[in-house]
């Protein structure tokens, strides 16, 4: 028995209002990511290997706001954040503000496995990743014309990173493997036009990413500042452990609180028992589910 759930961000996606080519590309990218993770899990591989593999596919895909295709900071550069957590022993690694490491999620995994630290940032994080043998690229490699256009448009309108029409394109993966271990991975370019070295919830263990074999593995997308204040991913695990809530209720309740605090977004999660749930307070969320019984589902809009 295994399950894998992924997301490619939440936002104002509505049927008929999404560029058809973009929708096709995003659905194909989600399918590819599911296959990459499912191949590992169906072979008896670990949840950590599966979430890293799925996240890598989405990072490489310019349709999503992670790795190549990340949104641009106000200064025109891409700065990537990522985190990975193994529910078996609660080991975790994260990176923030990467500018040259091609695979942010793999850098996070190296931090987890090959460093004494949990979170490292900026030039030091790229330096660590390079020393760990991970490929380095020019910052321009991450940049797509569409993301450049989005930044120019936002700046021209005088808006900043908290524009109300924002689409959250962060990617994430959660899995439970055949041994009942869970893992979570999240990777993002953050918010368009972010400034001052802003870091969101994605690389913060307990906020945008958390995994605990005693409860669940969780990955978030949405307005990071609110997810940080809600300690969202950890809060879900705490409600399951201490209040006995099931996975879906824990997700729905935490998202409802985030709404009350002024944030929107989405969450995906799996439990060691094999439950899987997603929830979002935006009109849509790019998402997918794969399971041992052959299930393969990809969805974008609310009613699918
Ligand atoms: N949560 C991410 C952040 O605030 C944004 C996203 O989900 O797209 O950095």
Number of domains: 1
Approximately how much beta-strand content do the residues carry?
15-25%
From the spread of the alpha carbons, the general shape counts as globular
What average pLDDT do the residues reach? 94
Order of helices and strands: EHHEEHEHHEEEEHHHEEEE
Largest sheet: 8 strands, mixed
Number of contiguous helices? 8
Secondary-structure class? alpha+beta
Radius of gyration based on Cα positions: 17 Å
Q: Tell me the total number of β-strands.
A: 12
Oligomer: single chain
Any overview of this molecule?
The mean pLDDT is 94. The protein starts with a strand and ends with a strand. Helix content is 34%, strand content 24%. Strand 2 and strand 3 form a beta hairpin. Helix 7 crosses helix 8. It is built from 8 helices and 12 strands. The chain is globular and about 50 Å long. It is an alpha+beta fold. The chain has one domain (3-205, 284-301). Strands 4-3-2-6-5-1-11-12 form an 8-stranded mixed beta sheet. It has helices at 20-42, 47-60, 104-114, 122-131, 145-156, 224-229, 232-243, 247-260; strands at 3-11, 80-86, 91-98, 119-121, 171-176, 182-188, 209-211, 217-222, 265-270, 276-280, 284-291, 296-301.
Q: Which key terms come to mind for this protein?
A:
304 residues, alpha+beta, four-stranded antiparallel β-sheet, 12 strands, 24% strand, binds aspartic acid
Condensed summary:
The protein is of the alpha+beta class and 304 residues long.
Topology:
Elements: E1 3-11, H1 20-42, H2 47-60, E2 80-86, E3 91-98, H3 104-114, E4 119-121, H4 122-131, H5 145-156, E5 171-176, E6 182-188, E7 209-211, E8 217-222, H6 224-229, H7 232-243, H8 247-260, E9 265-270, E10 276-280, E11 284-291, E12 296-301
Parallel strand pairs: 3-4
Antiparallel strand pairs: 1-5, 1-11, 2-3, 2-6, 5-6, 7-8, 8-9, 9-10, 11-12
Aspartic acid binds near residues 65, 170, 190, 191 and 201.
């Amino acid at each position: 028995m295994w399950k894998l759930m992924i997301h490619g961000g939440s936002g104002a996606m509505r049927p008929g209002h999404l560029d058809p080519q973009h929708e096709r590309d995003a659905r194909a990218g989600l399918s590819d990511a599911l296959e990459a993770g499912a191949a590992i899990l169906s072979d008896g591989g670990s949840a950590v290997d599966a979430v890293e593999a799925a996240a890598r596919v989405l990072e490489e895909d310019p349709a999503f706001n992670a790795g190549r295709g990340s949104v641009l900071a106000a200064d025109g550069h891409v700065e990537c954040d990522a985190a990975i957590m193994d529910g078996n022993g609660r080991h975790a690694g994260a990176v923030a503000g990467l500018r040259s490491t091609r695979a942010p999620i793999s850098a996070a995994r190296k931090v987890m496995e090959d460093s004494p630290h949990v979170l490292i940032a900026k030039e030091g994080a790229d330096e660590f990743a390079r020393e760990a043998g991970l490929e380095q690229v020019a910052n321009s490699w991450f940049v797509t014309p569409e993301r450049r256009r989005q930044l120019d448009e936002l700046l021209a309108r005088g808006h900043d990173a908290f524009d109300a029409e924002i689409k959250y394109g962060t990617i994430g993966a959660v899995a439970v493997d055949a041994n009942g271990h869970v893992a979570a991975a999240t990777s993002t370019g953050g918010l368009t036009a972010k400034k001052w070295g802003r870091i969101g919830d994605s690389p913060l263990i307990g906020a945008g990413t958390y995994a605990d074999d005693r409860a669940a593995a969780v990955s978030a997308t949405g307005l990071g500042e609110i997810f940080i204040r809600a300690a969202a991913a950890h809060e879900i695990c705490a409600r399951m452990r201490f209040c006995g809530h099931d996975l879906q209720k824990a997700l729905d309740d935490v998202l409802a609180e985030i709404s009350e605090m002024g944030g929107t977004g989405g969450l995906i999660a799996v439990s060691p028992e094999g439950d899987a749930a997603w929830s979002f307070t935006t009109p849509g969320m790019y998402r997918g589910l794969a399971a041992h019984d052959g299930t393969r589902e990809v969805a974008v809009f609310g009613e699918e």
